[in-house]
Every structure is written in C-alpha cells, then in structure tokens.
UniProtKB/TrEMBL annotation:
Residues annotated as transmembrane: 12-31
Record bears the keyword Protease: no
Domain of life, source organism: Eukaryota
Keywords: Cell wall, Cell wall biogenesis/degradation, Glycosidase, Hydrolase, Membrane, Secreted, Transmembrane, Transmembrane helix
Gene Ontology biological process terms from the UniProt entry: carbohydrate metabolic process; cell wall organization
Protein's recorded name: Glycoside hydrolase
Family per record: Belongs to the glycosyl hydrolase 28 family.
Database matches in InterPro entries: Glyco_hydro_28, PbH1, Pectin_lyas_fold, Pectin_lyase_fold/virulence
Alphabetical list of Pfam families matching this protein: Glyco_hydro_28
Primary location class: secreted
Organism the protein comes from: Macleaya cordata (Five-seeded plume-poppy)
Taxonomic lineage of the native organism: Eukaryota, Viridiplantae, Streptophyta, Embryophyta, Tracheophyta
GO molecular function, one term: polygalacturonase activity
Compartments (UniProt record): Secreted, Cell wall
Amino acid sequence: MFVNDIQDYPGYWFSFIQIILVLFLLGPVNAKTSYIKPHNHNPVHGAPNGAQYNSYQPYNTIFDVLSFGAKGDGVADDTKAFLAAWQAACPIGSATIEIPSEFRFLVGPITLQGPCIAGLVLQIDGTIIAPRNPSKWPKPGLLQWINVKNLHGFTIQGSGTVDGQGSEWWILPEFQLNWLKQLAIRFYTSSNVTIRDIWIQNSPQCHLKFDNCTGVKVSNITISSPADSPNTDGIHLQNSKWVELESSSISCGDDCISIQTGCSNVNIHHIRCGPGHGMSIGGLGKDGSLACVSDIVIQNSTMHNTLYGVRIKTWQGGVGSVESVIFSNIQVSNVKIPIAIDQFYCDRAICLNKTDAVAVSNITYNQINGTYTTQSAYLACSNTIPCTNISMNDVLLTPLTTTAWGLKKALCWNSYGKTQPLLFPNSTDCLEARQPPYRKAPSLNRTNLTC
C-alpha cells in the first residue's frame, strides 16, 4: 500500500534517485575525520623521500611520526620524519601530529613553519632529544633547537618530555656559550598558542621563549635543569602581549621567568620557582636601548632556594619605562633577596656610570612573606630618574639566621612611595614618602625613543 501511495506522488522516481545519491556521497564525508591506525611501521617501497604514507589517506587528521619514517630508538636521526609529518599535517584542519609514548626521537635543529590551518596540535607523549654534542649542531649561530614560527591557533601538549641534553654545552667556556645562546623551544610571530602538561629539561640555555607573540597560554608544564647550569632561564618573554603562565614548576640555573622589552598584559600565577634566580623583569635598556614593559601581574606563587624573589633590573643608559606591575601573595623560602629593583644592573666586571635610565613607576608589593638569607629588600634606583609610586603592603620577611653576621638592612635608594603595615623587618619600611625632587631630564639627543 505504501509503495503504491508514493508512486502516485509526482516526481517520485526523481526524488528517490536524489536520496540514493546523497546517501552514497555522505560515506566519504563521514570518513573525513577518521583515523586509520597503522598496521605496522614498515616503510613503503617507492614512497617519496623515504616517507611512509601507507597507513594514511588524505582525509586523516592524526599523523604518527613513526608512519613517516621515524625510528624512535634515540640513535637514528628522525628530523626528516618530523618535517614530513609536519608538512602533511599543516594544511589539514584540526590535525594532530603524534609523538607516541615509549619511544625516544633524536631530532636535530628544526623549524616548524607556518602558516598552517588553525587547530594544529603537536601531541608529545614520547621523548624528543637534541643532539648531545655541540659540534653536531649547524653553524654558525643557529639560536634555537625547535623553532615554531608564524602559527595561529597551535597547541603543544602531552605527557612526554623535550630533552635538550645540555650538559656538554654547560662546560663550554663562558664566552663561547654566550655567543651561541642555544635555547630549546622558541615561538616566533605566533598567536593564540598553548603549551600544556609537557616536561622540558636540560636545555643548553633558555628552555622556552616567546618572541613577538600575542595570546599565549602556558599551563601545568615542568621545566627542569640543575641549579648550576649557566643561563638556563625557564620561560623568556620578549615583545609579547596577552600572556598567561600558570600552574607550573620551574627549576633552572637562571631566572625562572624573564620578562623583556615589549611585553604587556602578562598574568603569571601559581608558579613554583626554585632553584634559580627568581622571577625577573629585565635586564632592560642594555647599550642605551629602548625598553617598554607594562601591566604585569605576578601572584600566588612560591620561590624556594632562589637568588632573588621578584626583581626588576635595568642597565644604566637605557630609556623607556616599566610601569603598572603587581607582585602579590608571593611566598619565599631560603631566598637571598626577596624584593629587588636594581637600576645599576651589570653582568660584567665593570660598567660605566650613565645618566639615562629606564623609568620605574607604579610598582606594588603585596603579601610578600617568608624567609631570606641576606637582605629583605634592595631598591637601588637611578640617581637621575628615581623610582616612583612604589607601594609595600603586608611584607613579612624573617631571616633564616638568628645572628647578624651576613645580614644586611633593607636598602631604598632614590625610591619613593608608601608603605602600609605590617612590615618586617623594620628596615623594610624605607621608602621615601615625600615627592621626589625635580631633576633635569637627561639630554638624550635621540628621537623615537619613547614607549
């Protein structure tokens, strides 16, 4: 009865054929996001450049590096396989490059170049290791191991490890190490990028750097290198805006977090720092350069066994400004100097005195509590351009030793602002409450050097 009824409907056969065609075409559409698990990791004879495409069709969105020729034995060079997987995944929407667990992949210096389709994920569940011997790196002057460039909407995540194997770099002469400046992972000119959950360790120098980036989130990562490893900063920010660093642990041989010129709207919270040199803004203004940093919040974090707690450091002769910075709820333990502003920063034997300075203003220290070993606060500001609008509230710092030997009173030099109880030790209450005296601005004879 039903068949007879629909046969009486005008255009029945044409509509029926249309339905059949649609059902037929929907099959490949539904398969577009499917993942065909590779049956094995044996190469396919005749695949271009040794790549292994047997397990993948163009509609796959998961790209296992083993299927592109990677060995994962920690000995064979898997750089080309990583690049092949990257090139295959880059133009695919919401693709994932899989670094599988229980494998060690030796990868040389590599650039993961965009632009790519947004939503690309690098899933690191195994271990990626750098060449151990510095002589194996290309020369001269390649500054990073893993270079991530020109990407939007990119994520690195997973339960795996990125190991820079930096121990042979750390024994190089200091001048040679400083010239090479090798770092582990560098993001450049990228936006809306996320790094979460992975472990980064033993970089030759800085572990993770963001340069000219906008919209960065780092969450729940671990960075680890020995306390005596030279210049192994944890996270380095430069010319980057709208950054959030949260819920991570950093131990290294230099600053846990370093904020350089061009950074603004940075929110750092729930970071465990130590050993290391603490969290720093700067050094800024080196060689008379312009430095601009603003709207920085560092809060709800701990410093243990560090050289400094929270620090601002600038070179004499620089220009620009550091302003609107809040350090709040910072717990320190066995920290040499918990609070520091150093406008006479110098990392060499001799630095000449200069009148120009990066202005420091609107800095808040709120709830900085714990123990120190040398000096509770060291605020050494420019003789020409003093620090202004400094605020200290609820700063309670106790020396670890009960003897006066080795301890210094807090220093406030050309530092102006206000304090509110409680403050301990009493010498921490050293800010000058009056307005700073007028000083003639230095003669710069330079143009376009304002923030």
